[in-house]
Amino acid sequence: MTTELRQAITLLQYSAMDLTEYLQEQSLENPLIELKEPLWEQGFYKSTHKHESDVNPLDFVSNEHRTLQDDLLTQIRLLHLVEGDYPIIRYMILLLDENGYFHEDLELVAEKFSVGYEYVEELLKCLQTLDPIGVGARSLGECLYLQLKNNDKIEEIALEIVLNDLELLADKKWKQIVKKYGVSLPYIQTIYDSLKTLNPRPGSSYNTSISNYIVPELAVQEDEGMFSVSFNDQSLPQISVNEKYQGYLKGTKQDDLTKYVADKYQQVMWLQKSIEQRRLTLLKVMITIIEKQPNFFKKGPKYLKPMTLKDVAEETELHESTVSRATTGKYVQTPHGVFELKVFFSSSIPMSQGGDTSSTEVKNELKQLIDDEDKKKPLSDQRLVELLKDKHGFVVSRRTVAKYRDQLKIPASSKRRRYDD
Q1: Cβ contacts of residue 366 below 8 Å, gap of 6+?
Q2: Which residue range or ranges hold the RNA polymerase sigma factor 54 DNA-binding domain (predicted)?
Q3: In-domain check, residue 294
């Protein structure tokens, strides 16, 4: 395999953000490369909005921002501490992880500043009074405890359960909690519901790294019932040759510098060619997807048909692995929202009256059945199998239902049950 072919394959599997990062690295190694950064690098295309109506104008503000540590260091000025306490609490703030948790051993902090363990622990409690609430916690239980403690309506026994038996609470082993604390199941249900309103990662709101961005490289438009696809040229950096080196390319002088420039120029040409080939491959695959999934684009995700990588590979005369690379981590803007290209592929599920449907459609109906169930008597996987067949004609096994439920991040019926009064 040639270096150029290897590069083309590598670029095809990159997402827009990965490719942008790769081009930036190449520009550092090759002085002939000039890049004009894409719009999302300038603060656009933030988040994963499904519909234009969901867009918040604030999402288009540049991602330059204050850090969690910045805000906490500002807040400690308002604490009534003695002068010697500030270096210690500053040190602890700088040790917080990106979610606001404190993982350092307090014994080591005490030793570093030549003070007692209890003294450092009191300073950590001071840190835990700052915003966002829950910051400075040493565990998930303590983080949730700090937030619940801020609620005057929460009783002391509820705080004790969260701090000491969070695992039993999360796993819905509530009868053990009833036996240990002498409380009722409905009471535990209220604690459980309260926990779902809390933030287990209090520092996460400060983390708006570029990894949270989705950049649709393709766009599908409808015009009088016909669909067309275009490539979003603003999704990637624009690459060109640095004009300062053009003279070396035109000259006849054959010294080391001229040879170096010529080699680097050839690398730029191959890079541009590989990027163009990537663009054409994505367009080719997307056109085939539109042809095979017309009802999806006309009516929405509910009308997705079964389609495999092999189906598209045969139509485009590309290798199946090429189609896989071209659809992984690539996004398209459609009249129904932004979707990863992988969404359009799903296995076939037989229907009781003949024909088939997509696994995606089965998952949608499975989720709807669970959303509509009586939470005091949640549906078992076997009952879901029966309802999918009786209501929709989908023929699936209990194992398949369990697999789809796991993929949808829906717990088993025993963990979905509610214990309201």
Answers
A1: 384, 388, 401, 404, 405, 408
A2: 259-418
A3: yes
User: CATH no. for residue 363?
Assistant: 1.10.10.60
Q: How many structural domains compose the chain?
A: 3
Same domain for 192 and 241: no
In this structure, the answer to whether residues 239 and 311 fall within a common structural domain is yes
The Cα 391–Cα 368 span in angstroms is: 12
Nearest to 382 by CA among 361, 396, 368, 363: 396
**Where among 174, 192, 207 does a domain terminate?**
207
Greatest alpha-carbon pair distance for the chain in Å reads: 92
Residue 299 domain boundaries: 3-46+212-344
* DSSP helix/strand/coil, 277: helix
Assigned domain for 193 exists: yes
Number of C-beta neighbours around residue 306 at 10 A: 17
8 Å CB contact between 106 and 120:
yes
Q: Residue written as tokens 């997307």?
A: 286
Nearest to 344 by CA among 355, 359, 356, 354: 359
From 289, 311, 344, the end of a domain falls on: 344
Measured CA angle at 409 (ends 366, 346), to 5 deg: 55
- DSSP output for 148-195: HHT-TTS-HHHHHHHHH-HHHHHTT-HHHHHHHH---HHHHHHHHHHH
Per the domain annotation, does 241 fall within a domain? Answer: yes
Contact in structure between 199 and 147 (CB atoms under 8 Å) = yes
Low-confidence ranges of the chain (pLDDT < 70): 1, 38-65, 207-213, 247-254, 421
Q: What is the pLDDT of residue 383?
A: 95
Which are the contacts of 328, defined by CB distance < 8 A and separation ≥ 6?
A: 13, 340, 341, 342
Query: Residue 55: inside a domain, yes or no?
Result: no
- Contact criterion met (CB below 8 Å) for 216 and 329: no
Task: List beta partners, residue 221.
Answer: 228
Contact 343, 302 (CB under 8 A): no
Please say whether the beta carbons of 30 and 268 come within 8 A. yes
Residue 312 and residue 357 share a domain: no
Do residue 185 and residue 145 come from a single domain?
yes
- pLDDT reported for residue 327: 94
Give buried/exposed letters for 215-229 (b at 16+ CB in 10 A, else e). Answer: bbbbbbeeeeeebeb
For 5, 297, 329, 394, the CA distances from 339, given in Å and listed in that order, are 29, 11, 10, 25
**Does 108 lie in the same domain as 224?**
no
| Nearest alpha carbon to residue 144 among 183, 205, 100, 85 | 100
